[in-house]
């Protein structure tokens, strides 16, 4: 009789860590594109286009978070002030009360906040400093990859 080995067990295959914001930032990095409140919407639009991003954070001279400006904010203002929008200041239309998350927050909690608040970008703050920004797309992509991995683990558990 020969000894059998088990490379997989229910514990190793089904062990699950809580997915956190930090896991996304570890892959994505902490680069954050920012403007100052006094910048114009034209400058914001150029940055959004050139960086291929959907929102930009707004920081003061000391680097403190002052707000966030999204494509949606700009589109709303374009509809309200046609032909007069681009010279306006970022501070005039940015969202000043910004929902933030922390690196150790669970992704499911962050996704729920984004869905309930109907926004797609969330700055990440650690020790009162901006540590990055995550998007709803980042969270969904992370979760899809996680689901694919879980499906593979279950398949291996069943097949052996």
Automatic annotation (TrEMBL):
Keywords, comma-separated and alphabetical: CBS domain
Q: Does the keyword Ion transport apply?
A: no
The record's annotation in InterPro entries points to: CBS_dom (IPR000644), CBS_dom_sf (IPR046342), CBSX3_CBS_dom (IPR044725), Diverse_CBS-Domain (IPR051257)
Q: Which segments constitute the CBS domain?
A: 25-85, 94-150
> This chain belongs to which protein, by name?
CBS domain-containing protein
From which source organism is this entry?
A: Roseibium sediminicola
């Amino acid at each position: 009789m020969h000894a059998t080995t088990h490379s997989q067990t229910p514990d190793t295959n089904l062990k699950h860590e809580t997915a956190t914001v930090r896991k996304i930032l570890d892959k994505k990095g902490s680069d954050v594109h920012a403007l100052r409140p006094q910048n114009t919407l034209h400058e914001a639009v150029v940055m959004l286009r050139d960086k291929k991003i959907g929102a930009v954070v707004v920081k003061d001279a000391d680097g403190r978070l002052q707000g966030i400006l999204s494509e949606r904010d700009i589109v709303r203002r374009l509809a309200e002030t046609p032909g007069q929008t681009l010279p306006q200041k970022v501070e005039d239309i940015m969202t000043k009360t910004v929902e933030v998350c922390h690196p150790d927050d669970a992704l499911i909690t962050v996704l729920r906040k984004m869905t309930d608040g109907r926004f797609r970008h969330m700055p990440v703050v650690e020790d009162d400093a901006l540590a990055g920004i995550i998007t709803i797309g980042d969270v969904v992509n992370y979760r899809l990859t996680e689901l694919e991995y879980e499906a593979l683990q279950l398949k291996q558990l069943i097949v052996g």
